[in-house]
């Protein structure tokens, strides 16, 4: 997670002080009849101490803790760590930045003392990595030194995609405590660095995961636990893990499977996308375009209304969506930080949806009507504080790539570079909106042209994919292939690959395009635009290197249930999270 620390002292709208949720005798029932019950026990026993050092989105951890009936006390001083009954450290961002904060605030030594005394501790993601001796991330950088080993980067030259993003499985050892019954189920990972098993740290390891190689997925020794994955983003399975740690006794959570099938490897992700905009009466609605046109073909020409954003996101979470993506499709025209309703959508959604949330639209530098300048980093930071795990950048990434290809210089000033430097490349998705342009000869254009499966209207056998900006309104002199490779170099962690020609048509993904881009980069690619049947998902996974597939309209209109997609994938021998 290649990042440096950023901390805003004055949030622009929604602060953590406004996110408190009171839930007593809470009951949650998942799609697979898993039931979670939690109640505030009163007194100090219901308080969890949270070590939030100020980088990235920890709102979801807060929401999960409160969802399970516990209150939160934030660490302000080293003494707060020593006085904790149970401590959670949800590390997000870069290893060096986190160690700097811990050392500067005098917390590193106190944290080591707390852990050495075998007091209840749960580290998440970076909160696991910091326990090791050092990290190679922008280093070497010295860690807390409690566990032997060095944290290193995944090797993409072996054919794996880095970051490791998605739902993978654990090989759980006996006596793992909070991971009981989790073997054979998927949990959510998002990271570029990992610690490796060795004879020196073997007695700490409670689970490993395979991603090109076996790496440490969790550790346990006595009351000390730490996990590389994100339980707060791992659905009902992750909530069960958190609940077991918080209760410090046998879990109240019962996880029942509808089938005896066990997860075996990294799953292909099925993502539900919600295009959100205000309609003509000012209400925030989910809509869907037909080749990017979101208005009905009626006399009134009204904005197509397919539901309310928070309700639909909650439904897709219960239906088994692996991620939920919000696209604010009026963001390029409006003042993004003035779009309080969209920020509230994220806030309310993250209170009850415990899978990753992505938001896009309007993430760029701008100046408001009063002459105040805002950086894209400030815009992204507000989205993260409101509950987003990833931000999606569209037009601004195109401009940055054009400048980079023209000059060969990484200025560090583009929104893509700023946000990935601060929050890590795994938090930045680049959304590409290309249209197919046919040519008779690939030498006729300066951009990458390929032979296409379906010839053009005049029998053309080749095509290149022209990138567009401003919601597909303006074509640019750059191809999807060139853009994808450039944004990977600039710090993108994932690509959302749309296709204007296929949007809303229901005839399947543009396989030629997805294969072209997914073969060109080493970061994950999400196929988008054109899904109309379950077979379209298995086709794109079988014929390309796409890591995920996204759909909108077929889910909104209930034409194809998410579970039907996943059941079909399993029948076709493609790993899916159930």
UniProtKB/TrEMBL annotation:
Top EC group: hydrolase
Catalytic residues identified in the record: 125, 230, 232, 275, 433
Residue sites binding L-glutamine per the record: 125
UniProt entry keywords in alphabetical sequence: Amino-acid biosynthesis, Chloroplast, Glutamine amidotransferase, Histidine biosynthesis, Hydrolase, Lyase, Multifunctional enzyme, Plastid
Domain Glutamine amidotransferase: 50-245
GO MF annotation terms: glutaminase activity; imidazoleglycerol-phosphate synthase activity; lyase activity
Catalyzed reactions: 5-[(5-phospho-1-deoxy-D-ribulos-1-ylimino)methylamino]-1-(5-phospho-beta-D-ribosyl)imidazole-4-carboxamide + L-glutamine = D-erythro-1-(imidazol-4-yl)glycerol 3-phosphate + 5-amino-1-(5-phospho-beta-D-ribosyl)imidazole-4-carboxamide + L-glutamate + H(+); L-glutamine + H2O = L-glutamate + NH4(+)
Pathway(s) of this molecule: Amino-acid biosynthesis; L-histidine biosynthesis; L-histidine from 5-phospho-alpha-D-ribose 1-diphosphate: step 5/9
Subcellular location: Plastid, Chloroplast
UniProt-listed Enzyme Commission number(s): 3.5.1.2
GO cellular component assignments: chloroplast
One Pfam family hit: His_biosynth
GO BP: any one term: L-histidine biosynthetic process
Record-linked CDD domains: GATase1_IGP_Synthase, HisF
HAMAP family: HisH
Job of this protein: IGPS catalyzes the conversion of PRFAR and glutamine to IGP, AICAR and glutamate. The glutaminase domain produces the ammonia necessary for the cyclase domain to produce IGP and AICAR from PRFAR. The ammonia is channeled to the active site of the cyclase domain.
Entry's family note: Belongs to the HisA/HisF family.
PANTHER family for this protein: IMIDAZOLE GLYCEROL PHOSPHATE SYNTHASE HISHF, IMIDAZOLE GLYCEROL PHOSPHATE SYNTHASE SUBUNIT HISF/H IGP SYNTHASE SUBUNIT HISF/H
Protein name, as recorded: Imidazole glycerol phosphate synthase hisHF
């Amino acid at each position: 997670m290649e990042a440096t620390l950023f901390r805003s002292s004055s949030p622009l709208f929604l602060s953590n002080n406004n996110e408190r949720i009171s839930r007593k005798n809470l009951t949650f029932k998942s799609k697979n009849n898993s039931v979670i019950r939690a109640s505030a026990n009163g007194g100090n026993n219901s308080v969890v101490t949270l070590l939030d050092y100020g980088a990235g989105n920890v709102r979801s951890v807060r929401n999960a803790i409160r969802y399970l009936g516990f209150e939160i006390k934030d660490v302000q001083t080293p003494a707060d760590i020593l006085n904790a009954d149970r401590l959670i450290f949800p590390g997000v961002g870069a290893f060096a930045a986190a160690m700097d904060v811990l050392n500067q605030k005098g917390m590193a030594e106190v944290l080591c003392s707390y852990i050495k005394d075998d007091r209840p501790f749960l580290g998440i993601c970076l909160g696991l990595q910091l326990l090791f001796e050092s990290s190679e991330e922008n280093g070497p950088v010295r860690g807390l030194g409690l566990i032997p080993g060095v944290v290193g980067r995944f090797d993409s030259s072996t054919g794996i995609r880095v970051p490791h993003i998605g739902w993978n499985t654990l090989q759980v050892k006996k006596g793992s405590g909070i991971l009981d019954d989790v073997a054979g189920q998927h949990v959510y990972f998002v990271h570029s660095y990992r610690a490796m098993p060795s004879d020196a740290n073997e007695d700490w390891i409670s689970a490993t995961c395979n991603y090109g190689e076996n790496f440490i997925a969790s550790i346990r020794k006595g009351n000390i636990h730490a996990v590389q994955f994100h339980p707060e983003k791992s659905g009902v399975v992750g909530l069960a893990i958190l609940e077991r740690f918080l209760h410090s006794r046998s879990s109240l959570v019962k996880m029942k499977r509808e089938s005896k099938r066990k997860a075996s490897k990294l799953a292909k992700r099925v993502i539900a996308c919600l295009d959100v905009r205000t309609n003509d009466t000012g209400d925030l609605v989910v809509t869907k375009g037909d080749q990017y046109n979101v208005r009905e073909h009626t006399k009134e020409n009204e904005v197509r209304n397919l539901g309310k954003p928070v309700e639909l996101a909650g439904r897709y979470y219960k239906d088994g969506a692996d991620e939920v993506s919000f696209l604010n499709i009026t963001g390029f025209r409006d003042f993004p930080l003035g779009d309080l309703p969209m920020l509230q959508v994220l806030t309310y959604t993250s209170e009850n949806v415990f899978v990753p949330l992505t938001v896009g639209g309007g993430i760029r530098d701008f100046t408001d009507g009063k002459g105040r300048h805002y950086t894209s980093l400030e815009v992204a930071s507000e989205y993260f504080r409101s509950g987003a795990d990833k931000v999606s950048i569209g037009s601004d990434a195109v401009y940055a790539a054009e400048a980079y290809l023209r000059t060969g210089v990484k200025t560090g000033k583009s929104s893509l570079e700023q946000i990935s430097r601060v929050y890590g490349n795994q938090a930045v998705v680049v959304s590409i909106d290309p249209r197919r342009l046919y040519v008779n000869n690939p030498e006729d254009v300066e951009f990458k042209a390929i032979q296409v499966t379906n010839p053009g209207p005049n029998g053309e056998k080749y095509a290149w994919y022209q990138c567009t900006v401003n919601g597909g309104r303006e074509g640019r002199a750059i191809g999807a292939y060139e853009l994808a490779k450039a944004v990977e170099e600039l710090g993108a962690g994932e690509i959302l690959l749309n296709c204007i020609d296929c949007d809303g048509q229901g005839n399947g993904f543009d396989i030629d395009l997805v294969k072209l881009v997914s073969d060109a980069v080493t970061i994950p690619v999400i196929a988008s635009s054109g899904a109309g049947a379950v077979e379209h998902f298995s086709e794109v996974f079988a014929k390309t290197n796409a890591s995920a597939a996204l759909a909108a309209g077929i889910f909104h209109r209930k034409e194809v249930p998410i579970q039907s997609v996943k059941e079909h994938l399993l029948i076709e021998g493609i790993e899916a999270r159930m």
